[in-house]
Write a structure and sequence with these properties.
By secondary structure, the protein is α/β, with parallel strands linked by helices. It is about 35% helix and about 20% strand. Strands 7-8-10-9-13-17-14-15 form an eight-stranded mixed β-sheet, with helices on both faces. The protein has a six-stranded mixed β-sheet with strand order 1-6-5-2-4-3, sandwiched between helices. β18 and β19 form a beta hairpin. α2 packs across α3, α4 packs across α14 and α7 packs antiparallel against α9. The longest helix has 26 residues. The chain starts with 8 loop residues before the first strand and ends with a helix.
Length: about 500
């Protein structure tokens, strides 16, 4: 698994120099749909920018760009369109990507927003810019063209400089964590096995040994704990299942007391999902390496928290397994017992994510006293049909957690949508032979999956489930892991630091 270092010097300034620089910078200025330069900037470069707009026929549409390469004086100037001013707040992802693609072949750049965007939208812009920088090509004999960009200075004056510096620090930490999430999810399933996903967790314990401790359970340990649902999934594979337990002592200190009411993050880590005996169709099965997107996101989130040194306590559980057909694999109609003693009739072995998650949820509740549990999983195709790739499905039994996660989604642009958990949906999970069956009917598939998980949450325990099946990766020409919902979860954690 490759590392994804930042390799960029990022800085904030609240002053836009009107003088020409000794070392040529690539200057980026923004203009709206009326071709008006934004930011209340001044200086010798603006005359060139306005002339460029005039001669190029620049319209200022979102993501439109035009560049004067400054052949005479070496000063490159680009103007990027923002579209209508009243829709600017929603355009940060496009503008961040366009900005990076505009400046990536320059050595250094000056991105001048002036007094246009606040710290919130600046954070979204930086995250999108860095997101566009990401590459995954460790197995290519011929790499893509090398990015020469090494430094970016941002000019922002709407809020206090310290606010922008804080937003930049959080965005940078988020990018580092999100890149790790994308790395492990993009890796090949013959490389990123359950054992190697657990090793990625152990590496965090080495890299941040002052605040992180890691313990990995194998199948023998899980059998002793009675984790029959988890083992029903992993037993069909020659690759042993692993449960990685990562403790982040951001508040208590690693060598002091046990974690005190930590926030718990739980991730589904099915490193490859064939469907098991309930075998999936072959078309598109290669994308099932992304079925560990929940675990990847939780790993990336704790990496980001480590980079930002967030002052709170967390425990992260990665449920790592492979769902394969074999003579040892679970059959439809098998009945197994979860860690909490609940019997489960498995009617479809392709509904395996909820099986590894239910035992992971039991484990974290029995061994910690989490104030909130948040799990993330590429759980159901039904959620993709319902919400597409724009918003992740959010299920929760706790209003405070709901509001905090919705706010974090809106703040970062990593959006969620509340879904129902009515008891009437749970009726579909009644089994004639066990306490519960692992699937419902055709209707409300994402909802009944969440209802299944809810059965394993103890009374009074705050819990939220994120179905990220539509948001964890993209297919087609831009195939690859997105690293979502790391930005949203990171913002959530930042918002909780005052309450820890």
């Amino acid at each position: 698994m490759p590392a994804s270092p930042l390799n960029l010097d990022l800085s904030i300034s609240d002053k836009f120099s009107s003088k020409k620089t000794k070392t040529p910078l690539h200057l980026v200025i923004f203009a709206d749909s009326d071709a008006n330069i934004l930011g209340n900037l001044d200086g010798v470069h603006l005359d060139r920018a306005n002339a460029l707009i005039k001669v190029s026929g620049f319209k200022g549409s979102v993501g439109e760009s035009v560049t004067d390469y400054g052949i005479d004086n070496g000063q490159i100037i680009s103007v990027i369109g923002t579209g209508s001013p009243d829709k600017l707040a929603n355009q940060m992802p496009k503008l961040g990507k366009t900005t990076f693609n505009t400046i990536k072949n320059s050595k250094s750049a000056l991105v001048a927003w002036g007094d246009v965007i606040c710290q919130k939208h600046f954070g979204q812009f930086v995250n999108a810019l860095l997101h566009a920088k990401y590459r995954f090509e460790p197995y290519k004999s011929k790499k893509d063209d090398k990015i020469t960009l090494s430094a970016i200075q941002f000019i922002n004056t709407k809020d206090a400089k310290a606010d922008y510096e804080n937003a930049l620090a959080i965005a940078t930490a988020t990018h580092i964590g999100q890149s790790l999430a994308r790395d492990v999810a993009n890796d090949a399933p013959n490389i990123m096995t359950p054992a190697n996903l657990a090793k990625a967790a152990e590496k965090l314990g080495k890299d941040y040994k002052d605040v992180v401790s890691v313990n990995v359970l194998g199948e023998k340990e899980m059998k002793k704990l009675g984790m029959g649902c988890f083992l029903a999934v992993s037993q069909g594979s020659d690759n042993e299942g692993k449960l990685a337990v990562i403790e982040y002592h951001g508040k208590t200190g690693k060598k002091k007391d046990k974690l005190k009411n930590p926030i718990a993050l739980v991730g589904k880590g099915i490193t490859f999902d064939t469907g098991g005996i309930s075998l999936k169709p072959s078309a598109g099965m290669e994308e099932m390496k992304y079925d560990m997107g929940g675990a990847a996101a939780m790993l990336g989130t704790i990496k980001a928290a480590c980079e930002a040194r967030l002052p709170l306590d967390m425990v992260v559980i990665l449920a790592c397994a492979e769902n394969m057909p074999s003579g040892k694999a679970t059959r439809p109609s098998d009945i197994v017992t979860a860690m909490n003693g609940m019997s489960v009739e498995i009617l479809n072995t392709d509904a395996e994510g909820r099986l590894v998650l239910c035992d992971a949820l039991c484990y974290v509740q029995d061994n910690y006293k989490p104030r909130t549990i948040i799990d993330a999983a590429t759980l159901t195709g039904a959620c993709v049909i319902a919400l597409g790739s724009v918003r992740s499905g959010l299920y929760t039994n706790d209003e405070d957690t709901l509001l905090a996660l919705e706010e974090a989604g809106e703040y970062t642009g990593d959006l969620v949508w509340q879904m129902p958990l009515d008891d009437a949906y749970d009726e579909q999970l009644k089994s004639g032979f066990a306490d519960v069956q692992n699937i419902g009917g055709r209707e409300g598939g994402s909802i009944t999956a969440a209802c299944f998980l809810k059965r394993f949450i103890k009374e009074g325990q705050a819990w939220a489930h994120l179905d990220i099946a539509g948001t964890a990766w993209s297919g087609g020409d831009n195939k690859g892991a997105s690293g979502r919902p790391v930005p949203m979860l990171m913002r959530y954690l930042v918002s909780q630091t005052d309450q820890s």
